[in-house]
Amino acid sequence: MSRVIRNRRSSAALTLVLALTGAACAAAVPAPANAATASATAQAGEYRIGPDDVLDIAVWNNEEISRTVPVRPDGKISLPLLNDVHAAGLTATQLAEALAQKLERYIDSPEVTVIVAEIHSFKVSVLGQVRSAGLYEMSRGATVLDAIAVAGGFTDYAKPARMLVIRNGGGRTHKIRFDFNEYVDRARTQTPLYLQTGDVIVVP
Questions:
Q1: CATH code for the part of the protein at 2-31+121-203
Q2: Nearest-CA neighbor of 10 among 190, 153, 150, 147?
Q3: Is 48-118 a domain of CATH 1.20.1560.10?
């Protein structure tokens, strides 16, 4: 019984925090995120292209090469003359510079613009004691609170004080402990835990 009461307090606190901060910023496989919105998130830094993103590539005065292309699961795009070009992990500016350099073999002083038209590569998993566990497509700058919100909140048997964020980086797997109750109690002074693509949130 006490577990259910504590969780109801946590659920109410989550609702309050989300209402105050407007934190619910994503949904399960929502409409494509706006690239400008993603780039504007200061905490996330300049956006780097990922698999499944859609790119608008414009080569000035050359409509035959200009086109909209998806980034394949292997991180590459396909363009006339150039065939396969690696795009994942680059910013739009870096990819534009790389394409211009490659096109110099065929075009004099090529001017290339790359716009990330649709973002589909920022995904996180929410597992355990939430109402709708699964893989979710999120916006850049999303936090743990956002992920819990789109997963429907906690079940009555969740232990939000013992949450984990599992993150792969630098060839290692990192386990980040997240105490939801403590965060809510100190929301005004706590630094949000921003998510990275591929994060796995576990609610025991």
A1: 3.10.560.10
A2: 153
A3: no
> 101: closest CA among 86, 119, 122, 115?
86
Q: What span, in angstroms and rounded, lies between the C-alpha atoms of 152 and 164?
A: 17
Output b/e per residue, 93-117; b: 16+ Cβ within 10 A.
Answer: eebbebbbebbeeebeebebebebb
Q: What is the pLDDT of residues 74-98, one digit of tens each?
A: 999 999 999 899 999 899 999 999 9
Retrieve residue 150's tokens: 């789109």
Eight-class DSSP state of 161: G
User: Using one digit for the tens of pLDDT, what is the confidence trace for 16-53?
Assistant: 444 433 333 333 333 333 333 333 333 345 788 999 99
Q: What are phi and psi of 18, to 5 degrees?
A: -65, -40
Are β-strands 200-203 and 123-128 bridged in parallel, bridged antiparallel, or unpaired?
Answer: parallel
Q: Which helix (H) or strand (E) holds 128?
A: strand 123-128
Q: What is the reported pTM?
A: 0.61
Summarised one tens digit per residue, pLDDT across range 117-137 is 998 888 999 999 999 999 999
